[in-house]
Specification:
The chain is mainly α. The chain contains 4 helices and no strands. About 5% of the residues are buried.
């Protein structure tokens, strides 16, 4: 049953104690590569960047032999690529925070009047 899983699988039978579940199927090295790619994607998302443009540019620079890793950080990269910043995400976050604050205020008012 283990086959080509990156981590051993145990505890998947009836009456067995649940154990670790595999995060992916493949080699351990592929798991580390996937982890690195997911880290790059999540960094781009947290910094409101166009994920495709950021990943493509970073990989192109690394494959081109660039060793200036500081310029590849999402916050620094965004300053040199302002057209790839997703401005609408900041507005969505403001609207979501406004709704949340309004909802909290209404709940507090309802608690004090009850």
């Amino acid at each position: 049953m283990q086959g080509n899983l990156a981590r051993p699988v145990w505890g998947w039978g009836p009456g067995e104690t649940p154990g670790p579940t595999p995060l992916f199927i493949g080699s351990v090295a592929a798991g580390y590569r996937a982890e690195d790619l997911m880290t790059l994607c999540s960094s781009a998302i947290r910094n409101d960047l166009d994920v495709y443009a950021y990943i493509k540019d970073v990989l192109d620079q690394l494959l081109g032999g660039s060793t200036d890793y500081g310029s590849l950080r999402p916050d620094v990269w965004a300053q040199s690529h302002p057209d790839s910043i997703r401005e609408y995400r900041a507005e969505e976050r403001r609207q979501r925070n406004t709704r949340r604050d309004r909802s909290r205020q209404e709940r507090r008012l309802n608690r004090t009047t009850d």
